[in-house]
Amino acid sequence: MSTTTPRLYVEDDLSAGQALRLDRDASHYLVTVMRRAPGDAVRLFNGRDGEWIAEVTDAHRKAAILTPLEQSRVQTRVPDLWLLFAPVKRAKTDLIVEKAVEMGVARICPVETRRTQSDRIRLDRFEAIAREAAEQTERLDLPAIDPLARLDTVLDGWDTDRVLIFADEAGDEANIAWGGQAGRAAPMPEQIASLRGRPAAILAGPEGGFTREERDHLRSLDCVCPVTLGPRILRAETAVIAALTVWQSVCGDWLDRE
Length: 258
Hints:
Elements: E1 7-9, E2 20-21, H1 24-33, E3 41-45, E4 51-58, E5 65-73, E6 81-85, H2 90-102, E7 107-112, H3 123-136, E8 144-145, E9 149-150, H4 151-156, E10 163-167, H5 188-191, E11 200-204, H6 212-219, E12 224-227, H7 236-250
Parallel strand pairs: 1-3, 6-7, 6-11, 7-8, 7-9, 10-11, 10-12
Antiparallel strand pairs: 2-5, 3-4, 4-5
Helix pairs in contact: 2-3, 2-7
């Protein structure tokens, strides 16, 4: 089956011969935008039953009907990696969510820090972004997406079996910009080399970084692994993408051969 065949996420169970009806938005996309007609093929996934080849049996633009024919891929899961990040401006936050899905994050957790720029998020928007990103990247599931929570609340309830990789670009010298070099964390590839196979989360801060109090609290926790992403101070959205890239290349499924 060609990768150009439309690929849609559905919530219905998928089994051979069990027809399903798309909602209005998905029907409009399939029939009006992609111009699919009865008899055309569509790929479907729901995060549980793998991927299926289905046939369009009714191309109504408001309520198209599809019939799954056969399973084309068995269900697989992404690595057990979470992303904690402080929301920034809307376009950049949308980018963070999109790239986290593309990079194979299992759970997305927006957190409010002292310097967080936005304390309002729309879960429905995040879910729509996640669905589209999963459809486009051949992913077989969607990440869980949590509502915004205060960082200290998240840390208070943290499962210490999950290592928290803290993107900490600051040093300990109070009178020097970003704390100078003294006390800076070791490079991320070096720090996480022994973490393959462990449940993990990456914490990326807001524009302006974490406060001294937040940094001290994080560094006091045994489950926290401070890392640096290099000699330059990265924008929030760049730091997220960089950290996910390093983790996937050292600990994630980029190393898998199948």
